[in-house]
Prior knowledge:
Layout: E1 2-8, H1 14-29, E2 34-40, H2 51-58, H3 79-83, E3 87-90, H4 93-102, E4 110-112, H5 113-127, H6 137-154, H7 162-165, H8 175-201
Parallel strand pairs: 1-2, 1-3, 3-4
Amino acid sequence: MVTLLTVCTGNICRSPYAHLLLGNRLDEIAPGAFSVASAGTMGLTGKPMDERSAARLAATGVRERAYTVDSFSARRLGDADVAGADVVLALTQEHRDAVIQMSPRMLKRAYTVREFARLVAHVYREAGDSIPGGAGPEQVAARWKALIKYATLYRSGLSAPAADDDVVDPYRREDAVYDEMVDQLLPALEAIIDLERAAAARA
């Protein structure tokens, strides 16, 4: 099983949006092959998902399966969360840095969501023949191991400024900032999902 962890600040707006969308879509593609969770560097422990963020998640048409808004509860990021993650998808470079500070061994396995989407697309363009296909748990695990290996190789040549990798924090701000969050985050999530769907369909 591949364990993904999304990380923002309060764990009520950005990281649960990414967590629940990825969790549901990946569960549709490869049932039982992924475990997706989220946490916040200053997590508002026990709080539900922000209503305006949840409404925008619902607008994607996601069909809740194992990952539901109603069962979501915010958590503060801890050592165990980081230790148990195969890949951390942070919502800003600052969040990624916080994860690496907690565990330097995550240097090669912690990315911003937008950075990871860019890297994975490049990996498939440059080394797609070396990436295993299939939707079984063992095939998925082998694929993501290969993705991280190649992403690490290409990372330095595909770096971007924070403005291109960070996702804006909409907490307690106007609706337009929530829309901006979606505009920055959703294309990256959809790119990751679409690439995984295509890979899973290959025998």
